[in-house]
Amino acid sequence: MISVDILVIGAGASGLMFASLHQSKNLLVVDANEKIAKKIRVSGGGKCNLTNKLVSFKNYLGDEEFIKDILSEFSNKDVLKYFNKIDLVIRKKNQYFCKNSSMDIIRFFEKKVKNILLKCRVENVTFCDNSFYVKSSKGLIKANKLVVASGGVSFKELGSSDIAFEIAKSFGHKIVTLKPALVGFTLQRADFWMKNLSGISLKIKLKVGKKEFFDDLLFTHKGISGPVILNSSLYWQKGSLEIDFLPDIDFKLRYKQKQISSNFAFPKRFIKEFLKSIDLEDKVIKELNSEEIEKLKRLKAYKLAPAGDFGYSKAEVTKGGIDTDEIDANSMQSKLQKNLFFIGECLNVTGELGGYNFQWAFSSAYRVKL
Ligand SMILES: Cc1cc2nc3c(=O)[nH]c(=O)nc-3n(C[C@H](O)[C@H](O)[C@H](O)COP(=O)(O)OP(=O)(O)OC[C@H]3O[C@@H](n4cnc5c(N)ncnc54)[C@H](O)[C@@H]3O)c2cc1C
């Protein structure tokens, strides 16, 4: 049996950040994968969008006070300082990426964190005589302190599992309902016309509840995706989204233009399919009656009720998670079990697209007080 003081489950963003800050011979990180940090490798198109210029609790779903407090101790500036020691990072608009490749972050962690046991899948945890007993594919591991950093359940191909939630439940924690997030939407029959636009991308404004996003929408053969949709999936529960396909301009018909299609600067395929969907021919603008003009005005406030989402296999994150009411925000320790800590995506805190989830993984890891 392996025996350590501190055991970290998960060599992902939060587990590695924690281990790099608490270097000790008596700390072991275990991970089910054959390599560390698979999500960091593929994130941001291989360049890892590790934080954002503007980070606030408003970019997250979860308990405001809990999030605010934890982000403030290890902010976006602290993340940049931490990694910029080796001049890794560049900014594109508000997002910070690796200058060359995500591998720079991984090498950074590899240098700092030595005690990692790979291909070690954790199956369950029990507590007895002040120690945790962790059953794993490499045998039993005994630890005085346990840091659970095993993430959410999305993208199983990158090693995700529900072990954090199973461990939390076994110690009496509540789990806020899990759902795929930062994910594309499938469509209802009324919006199937969009499937014929696969590959087209448009800048749109989108309202979901009280939130509004302005970014690219990508039509795919399965439904709709792109940054604006991924972000809205975080806040969408049920019902309609409202899309403004003309985000920068007022709806205006120029009567000098002959056809409807030449009135708008849309890709030809888009306006053709849109007109079909509202049962309107591409006719001369002067000939439009008031009812037809009303139909065209839907371009400014198109109501779309998604059928569902693309599921966990395509979702960048899992929303919901371990209820933060039962986690001490000063230490990340469970309020129900001494020496048990939870960090990263397994908690009920989910960020928008743009580096907010790595920021959360790093800030929550920094906050651990053993
Ligand atoms: C394709 C993709 C791209 C993304 N891009 C970005 C981005 O650019 N910016 C951003 O901010 N966020 C991005 N995210 C989200 C971000 O990767 C996660 O929110 C973040 O990695 C969560 O950190 P974590 O430490 O909680 O979990 P993870 O980084 O997921 O690490 C968890 C680790 O635990 C291990 N593990 C799981 N179960 C077990 C088990 N039973 N036994 C042992 N080990 C186990 C896993 O193998 C994994 O290594 C992306 C996600 C995906 C899927």
CATH architecture of the largest domain: 3-Layer(bba) Sandwich
- Tell me how many strands there are: 21
Tell me the name of the CATH homologous superfamily of the largest domain: FAD/NAD(P)-binding domain
Over all CA atoms, what is the radius of gyration?
24 Å
Shape: elongated
Task: Calculate the terminal CA-CA distance, rounded to whole Å.
Answer: 23 Å
What is the level 1 CATH name of the largest domain? Alpha Beta
Can you walk me through this structure?
The protein is an alpha+beta fold. The protein has 2 domains: 2-180 and 317-366, FAD/NAD(P)-binding domain; 185-309, Elongation Factor Tu (Ef-tu), domain 3. Helices cover 25% and strands 27% of the residues. It contains 10 helices and 21 strands. Strands 1, 2, 7, 8, 9, 10 and 20 form a 7-stranded mixed sheet that branches. Strands 17-16-13-14-15-12-18 form a 7-stranded antiparallel sheet. It has a 3-stranded antiparallel sheet with strand order 3-6-5. The mean pLDDT is 96. Residues 9-15, 30-33, 38-39, 42-44, 48-49, 121-122, 149-151, 154-155, 159-161, 163, 316-317, 344-346, 355-358, 361 line the site of flavin-adenine dinucleotide (FAD).
